Amino acid sequence: xxxxxxxxxxxxxxxxxxxxxxxxxxxxxxxxxxxxxxxxxxxxxxxxxxxxxxxxxxxxxxxxxxxxxxxxxxxxxxxxxxxxxxxxxxxxxxxxxxxxxxxxxxxxxxxxxxxxxxxxxxxxxxxxxxxxxxxxxxxxxxxxxxxxxxxxxxxxxxxxxxxxxxxxxxxxxxxxxxxxxxxxxxxxxxxxxxxxxxxxxxxxxxxxxxxxxxxxxxxxxxxxxxxxxxxxxxxxxxxxxxxxxxxxxxxxxxxxxxxxxxxxxxxxxxxxxxxxxxxxxxxxxxxxxxxxxxxxxxxxxxxxxxxxxxxxxxxxxxxxxxxxxxxxxxxxxxxxxxxxxxxxxxxxxxxxxxxxxxxxxxxxxxxxxxxxxxxxxxxxxxxxxxxxxxxxxxxxxxxxxxxxxxxxxxxxxxxxxxxxxxx
Length: 423
Hints:
Blueprint: H1 8-18, E1 21-25, H2 32-43, E2 46-49, H3 53-61, H4 63-68, E3 74-77, H5 83-95, E4 102-106, H6 114-120, E5 124-128, H7 134-138, H8 144-149, H9 165-171, H10 183-206, H11 214-223, E6 227-228, H12 231-238, H13 242-254, E7 258-261, E8 277-280, H14 283-289, H15 294-299, H16 302-320, E9 328-333, E10 339-345, E11 351-356, H17 368-377, E12 381-388, E13 394-395, E14 400-404, H18 407-410, H19 417-420
Parallel strand pairs: 1-4, 1-5, 2-3, 3-4, 11-12, 12-14
Antiparallel strand pairs: 6-8, 7-8, 9-10, 10-11, 13-14
Helix pairs in contact: 5-6, 9-14, 10-14, 11-14
């Protein structure tokens, strides 16, 4: 599977075994092509990429004719470039539903492209591939989510970090970028990456030329990691009309560069803040947009807070992708100012609250928001965790503890993760 063993592989195999169409989508350069090629080899499928201009021209002129000339199973890379192809696939699948006929990949969230979303509803399983998780980079199969919802008392032993959190945050998870050693070369990679997406992918999607403000919006969102998404504020600060901002934001979301963390609220009397938080989906990219390096992070620790929270949020999003009972990620805040950075909620209503601190020590005050949430939801509350930059697990009362951030990829509910990594 290239350099890294991707945990999405097992889910992809399962989906191909019983669905006629499987879509593997995610940000450009997150490793989709590598994984799709490996699957093509494994299943004997023909591999075709729409990044090839001749192929793209053939598909755009006669999608049904193109499909008729291709054997099955078929792997089609970068399908968002030819939306008509999906209508042709729909027609074929309606005639004959053979599992594993089509593996599609896309660098845009096709569910946000209206014409496309309608064409394959109910016929297609979707697997999202994010940039590498810390476990994938380390060769570990993470079990943090299952362990956090489980009953067992957390145990890790003293964690001696092999690599600093600042290193991990600045490196990000794009498979190609993580192998680049120097800050200058990584900055060049990120600049080229963003240019490709803004100049090509978004232009393909939006069919508009005037996207001059998009880089500015991206830089602005990067500079305010995990802040509440307030279009009126951003509009005032940038002079970009709110309607344009909303359209731009949707485009950035469609190409997996940004994502929202919705607020958690239930039908309860206490007044809760209902504004989502926003983050760039890769901290390496966010740090580059902010012009950050080791020196600046070392000199100004306040810069670390939001980025560390983004880092934790995306690790949880990635892990949810291969967890058997995937939770939804929220944040929680009352109008009185009590807050929990991240809330995981499973389908049965059970909750785990996670607070992120960029400090090496934790006090009882750091659990205030978690206690408020626990009191509000009663028995639905499974555990409250403060992730911090220290190295020990410290209990803070029933169901509450402080844990090192490294627990995200080192704590597991099952047998040791290193033995599971070879799946």
